[in-house]
Amino acid sequence: MDCLFCKIIDREIPADIVFEDDEVLAFNDINPQAPTHLVIVPKRHIATLNDIEEGDLALVGRLPYTAARLAREKGFAEDGYRVVMNCNEQGGQTVYHIHMHLMGGRRFTWPAG
């Protein structure tokens, strides 16, 4: 498999890892859009949100749980933060392994910006 995030999980490609447990890995985004910009990925490969099956629900639920935990640890949970998941090309997905972006440490506006 030629998946960038799987290679990070397998330590074939280096990343600045900030959190890891048995099911999830989080690392600093290489192109941050906020003072804190983390990428949270399940360790099991699921290509897109469209590929999530019922048996994946507990694993996928760990992504927002981990985001909230990291936001608290980083000190911006109470002020607020943004989480984003993209799906397929028109949705902005560039790595086909589901992942959640956690961004915090600044004010966000809507539409995204």
From TrEMBL:
A Pfam family assignment: HIT
Alphabetical list of Gene3D superfamilies matching this protein: HIT-like
All copies of domain HIT, residue ranges: 4-113
Any one GO molecular function term: catalytic activity
UniProt short sequence motif Histidine triad motif, positions renumbered to this chain: 97-101
Active site: residue positions: 99 (tele-amp-histidine intermediate)
InterPro entries the record matches: Histidine_triad_CS (IPR019808), Histidine_triad_HIT (IPR001310), HIT-like (IPR011146), HIT-like_sf (IPR036265)
PANTHER family: HISTIDINE TRIAD HIT PROTEIN
Entry protein name: Histidine triad (HIT) family protein
The species this protein was found in: Halomonas cerina
